[in-house]
């Protein structure tokens, strides 16, 4: 598969001359065409800010991409003027947010919102846009799409609103779909339906997906590869099977151990000790050292580089030497 998105040494910072918060601190990853990649980690690790950086939606003037490249089919999005980026958003890259009620305009009908996106990006008239909107609503499982077009967002359930957001995101056949915690506000049954729907649409339209979540259950359902982030940095990249069967970074191990299972009689769930470093905190050495069970002297003195273990696997940890072998 050829590469669709390539992120190189991306750094997104917030603050002023007195204080700088490195929300995204020099990350590198790529997504192939048609591939689903999950970006996981605790709240505050930089997942959502990575997605906003890709979309060109970093809150200004406090936030800014200070270095790096974001290449979509070879075009560096960081260098695009806002007018050009406005055309990319929605047409080539689409995004689904975790709470659709904050993304949908409460005073406009679903039809008005869906057709305006289609008219703008596909340059078609109102009738063709309405036909496309009906087609997309049918694809995401609405049995009466014409009726839904006339509804306002508050008249729909959370699951239905999320389906509308997926229909809107996919209506212009984007190359990349970014889904930021798309199932957080939904009950388990609706979660499963939404994930199945995203998987089906990805296959049907050959759309790549960047799934942003803290829920490893969701990751196992949808993703082919996983990128684990901690405190603005990538600490591990692995295929889904490798990650769950043989996690390398101590942080990844902790995340997987803290997932509840339906077998066994565990009285208390494991939780990683300590907390994510506060934004802007200056740390010498590995950012995870204070919470790590395998910490040794070097970890508190030097920042470990991210090392390639094999073609599909990388890890940022001194437990692995230059050849990718466990010490």
Characterise this structure.
The protein has 327 residues and is of the alpha/beta class. The chain has 2 domains: 3-92 and 174-315, P-loop containing nucleotide triphosphate hydrolases (Rossmann fold, 3-Layer(aba) Sandwich), CATH 3.40.50; 103-173, no CATH class. The protein is 33% helix and 24% strand. Strands 6-7-8-3-9-10-12-11 form an 8-stranded mixed beta sheet, sandwiched between helices. Strand 11 and strand 12 form a beta hairpin. The model has no long low-confidence stretch (mean pLDDT 89).
Helicity range: 25-40%
Number of strands: 12
Largest sheet: 8 strands, mixed
Low-confidence stretches: none
Shape: globular
Radius of gyration: 21 Å
Strand order of the largest sheet: 6-7-8-3-9-10-12-11
The residue-averaged pLDDT reads 89
Helix count equals 11
CATH topology of the largest domain: Rossmann fold
CATH class of the largest domain: Alpha Beta
CATH superfamily of the largest domain: P-loop containing nucleotide triphosphate hydrolases
N to C succession of SSEs: EEEHEEHEHHHHHEHEHEEHHEE
Distance between the termini: 34 Å
CATH architecture of the largest domain: 3-Layer(aba) Sandwich
How many structural domains are formed by the residues? 2
Decide which structural class fits the backbone.
alpha/beta
Strand content: 15-25%
List strands and helices in order, with pairings.
Layout: E1 3-15, E2 20-32, E3 36-40, H1 47-55, E4 63-72, E5 75-76, H2 82-91, E6 93-96, H3 100-103, H4 110-122, H5 126-139, H6 145-149, H7 158-170, E7 176-180, H8 188-205, E8 208-213, H9 216-222, E9 225-230, E10 233-239, H10 240-245, H11 250-257, E11 307-310, E12 313-315
Parallel strand pairs: 3-8, 3-9, 6-7, 7-8
Antiparallel strand pairs: 1-2, 1-4, 4-5, 9-10, 10-12, 11-12
């Amino acid at each position: 598969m050829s590469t669709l998105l390539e992120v190189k040494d991306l750094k997104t910072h917030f603050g002023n001359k007195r204080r700088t918060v490195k929300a995204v601190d020099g990350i590198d990853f790529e997504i192939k065409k048609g591939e689903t990649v999950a970006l996981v980690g605790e709240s505050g690790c930089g997942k959502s800010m990575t997605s906003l950086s890709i979309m060109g939606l970093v809150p200004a003037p406090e936030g800014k991409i200070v270095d790096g490249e974001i290449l979509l089919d070879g075009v560096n999005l960081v260098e695009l003027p806002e007018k050009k980026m406005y055309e990319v958003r929605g047409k080539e890259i689409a995004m689904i947010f975790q709470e659709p009620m904050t993304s949908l305009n409460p005073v406009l009908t679903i039809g008005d919102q869906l057709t305006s996106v289609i008219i703008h990006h596909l340059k078609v008239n109102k009738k063709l846009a309405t036909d496309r909107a009906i087609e997309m609503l049918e694809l995401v499982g609405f049995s009466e799409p014409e009726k839904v077009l006339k509804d306002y967002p508050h008249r729909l359930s959370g699951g239905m609103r999320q389906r509308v957001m997926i229909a809107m995101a996919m209506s212009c056949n984007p190359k990349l779909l970014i889904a930021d915690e798309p199932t957080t506000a939904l009950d388990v049954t609706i979660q499963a339906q939404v994930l199945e729907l995203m998987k089906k649409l990805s296959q049907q339209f050959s759309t790549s997906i960047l799934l942003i979540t803290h829920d490893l259950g969701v990751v196992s359902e949808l993703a082919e590869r996983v990128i684990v982030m901690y405190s603005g940095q990538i600490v591990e990249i692995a295929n889904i099977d490798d990650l769950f069967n043989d996690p390398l970074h101590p942080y990844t191990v902790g995340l997987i151990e803290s997932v509840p299972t339906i077998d066994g009689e565990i009285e208390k769930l494991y939780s990683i000790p300590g907390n994510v470093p506060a934004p802007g905190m200056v740390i010498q050495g590995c950012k995870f050292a204070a919470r790590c069970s395998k910490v040794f002297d070097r970890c508190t003195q030097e920042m470990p580089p991210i090392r390639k273990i094999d073609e599909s696997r990388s890890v940022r940890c001194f437990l692995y030497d230059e050849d990718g072998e466990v010490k």
